[in-house]
Amino acid sequence: MQLRSRYLIDSNKQSGYGRYDVMVAPKSVEGIGYIIEFKAFDADFDVDFETAAGTALKQIEDRQYETELKRRGVKRIKKLAIVFKGQEVKIVEGASNSLI
Question: How far is Cα 85 from Cα 82, in angstroms, rounded to an integer?
C-alpha cells in the first residue's frame, strides 16, 4: 500500500507560528501524524548531531508546528528531526505529549 493512500504529505506550509519542513497527516484521525524538521550543518562549525537535533525539535515545539494536525483532529503526533552532516544522517524523535 502506498503512503499517499493513507496520508496527505505537505511541505513548507504555515502551521502555528511558522512553516514546517514536512508534515505527514493521516487521512484518518486515528492515524499518527508526523512533523519533520531538517537541519544540515558543516563539520567546520562547533555543532554536533545532538545540538542540531535539539535545535530542530525545539523549533517544532516553539513554533507549534503541530497546530495544523491538531486542527484536523489528529491526536497522535510524532515530531522528528532529521540532521545531516555531509553524507551522515541522524534521525531523532522528540518527546511528544500528544502521543497516546
Answer: 10
